[in-house]
Amino acid sequence: MSKPVTRSYSRYNQEAVELLALTLRSARIEKKMTVANLAERAGMSRSLIQRIESGDMGCAIGAVFEVAAILGVRLFDAEPNALTRHLVQAREKLTLLPKAVHTPAREVNDEF
User: Which domain of life is it from (predicted)?
Assistant: First the structure.
């Protein structure tokens, strides 16, 4: 069995995840939910909830977003319709951009 790959993260990412983790934990406590209650409601294990609340960078983003939704923590905007509006704009922008990015071909040095 191979050793798991250790990945480094920028300080900005680490602090952002820590802030999100603390926000989720605070929201859960304010709603008087136990880790077990939240795990059951989210369809996740207690250990995954604990990892999310501790800021584990290896947690699936979908799981983190689901926990935030259950707890009522808005991740993008306070206005409910704003997320949909931003999503439409992002989709429209992507239709204007190239489908893929390619590494530029190296110039051929033909001067012998």
Answer: Bacteria
CA atoms of 112 and 43, how far apart (whole Å): 67
Q: What is the largest CA-CA distance in the chain?
A: 76
In a domain, 37, yes or no: yes
3-state percent breakdown (helix, strand, coil) of the chain, nearest 5 = 55, 0, 45
**Considering the domain boundaries, does residue 48 fall inside one?**
yes
Instruction: List the chain residues with pLDDT less than 50.
Output: none
| Torsional sign, CA 6, 12, 15, 16 | negative
Q: How many residues does the chain have?
A: 112
- Residue 1 has what pLDDT? 61
pLDDT of 44 reads 98
